[in-house]
Input
Amino acid sequence: MTIKVGVVGYGTIGKRVADSVAMQKDMKLIGITAHSYSFNTEVAKQKGYKIFGANGDSDLKLHGINPEGDINNLLEEVDIIVDGTPKKIGKENLDKYYKPKKVRAIFQGGEMHEIAGTSFVAQCNYDEAINKNYVRIVSCNTTGLCRTLDAIDKKYGITSVYATMIRRGADPGDIHHGPINAIVPVLEMPSHHGPDVRTVLRNVEIFTTALSVPSTLMHLHTLTVDLNKKAKVEDVVELFNSSTRIRVVRNAEHLRSTAEIIEFARDLGRLRGDMPEICVWQEAIGVISNARNKLLYMQAVHQESNVVPENIDCIRAMMGFKDGAKSIEMTNKTFGIK
Ligand code: NAD
Output
């Protein structure tokens, strides 16, 4: 069976999901929506994607794009929609379009967990999305936390987690956000990331804080994890090396910063220079064995791309494909993830 997929909201996440859908053998990209004309729409046109208007008579025709119809026409042709619109618009689209048209839909991390009642990270809870009508992919930060914490929890058991998210101020193409000369703490305790992790890893006790810095290249997380069992650094390295969508990076490779990781992704020939794996620094993994089995580590999270493979696996799960490990393997292959 070929799964027919539409993408509503063709921005940072939506355009990556569209390209990834087009690469899957068991999926067909039916089309994307364009809210207004931009270089994104122009590229979609050049790639031969069918473009549907998301905003009535916008400026598309003025710039030589004749939409195939509107969002309702797209919905008639698809099995499932991936909604990549900015936060809160996914909820509007659910009530206005997806529910009345009875079309399955995936939402992104800017929406609340309640929009779907199921939040998703493939390697943690693939089965929960099987045959669901609506699922939410958690945010880039939450996806990063869930991937490494799930691996640790399965091997050692987690008593509690304390984590700080040092977040990029804006995406590289975003001219509207900052900061450009400040470090901005999130003035809420805990930050929303901890509770969000518990929508996927329900039994993990986690407390998070967050701040934003003037960078566009990835988030950086520092974590302190209290374990139920003693751990050795070399075993944790081996655990991360053997877990999917986690990459151990090393000082010896000169991967000492988020900037070098992104340069590495470009050199690997990754589409758009993306690094969907969570990168954990080997030299920054530490264990304090005399104080309640504490594990410390640091990881980098490529905010623009790490949730994209999750969207692909979620499509398969919602369309009834039951083998999560197989789906992850199929998706990884198309992303060049080992
Ligand atoms: P974006 O602003 O880059 O893209 C959103 C797209 O939706 C734009 O092309 C915009 O024109 C279009 N759009 C706006 N209103 C629309 C409407 N009513 N109908 C159809 N299209 C509309 O946003 P983004 O960064 O891709 O974020 C999308 C979602 O993904 C959000 O929930 C966000 O929280 C989440 N997310 C973003 C990142 C990130 O770092 N960018 C990471 C993970 C998750």
In short: The mean pLDDT is 96. Residues 116 and 135 are 5 Å apart (CA to CA). Residues 140-301 form a domain with the Dihydrodipicolinate Reductase; domain 2 fold (CATH 3.30.360.10). The radius of gyration is 20 Å.
